[in-house]
Amino acid sequence: MEQIAAREEKEFIVSEITAHRYGRKKPIEFKVRWLDYPPSEDTWEPHWSVKDLEAFEKYLERNPKLQKRFDEKDVNIKK
């Protein structure tokens, strides 16, 4: 009989987006701060995983130059 490991699925909630970066040959990434986690647990996430979040919209509002680039170019923008 095959044993299957059970794993509890946790739900992680985005508190805010704190930064962005451009990778070599990679799309833009955003640094995500997770609700109830310290800054040491922040992670870099691709655009497609944050693009529909309210935190993403707020981040763009604080970064109008970046917003303009999204308005003008493809979502895989590079530096």
TrEMBL record:
Coiled coil region boundaries: none
Signal peptide feature range: none
Entry-linked CDD domains: CD_CSD
Keyword Nucleus: yes
Primary residence: nucleus
Domain of life: Eukaryota
Keyword Nucleus appears in the UniProt entry: yes
Domain Chromo: residue ranges: 12-71
Location of the protein in the cell: Nucleus
Pfam families, alphabetized: Chromo (PF00385)
Keyword terms of this UniProt record: Nucleus
Protein name, UniProt field: Chromo domain-containing protein
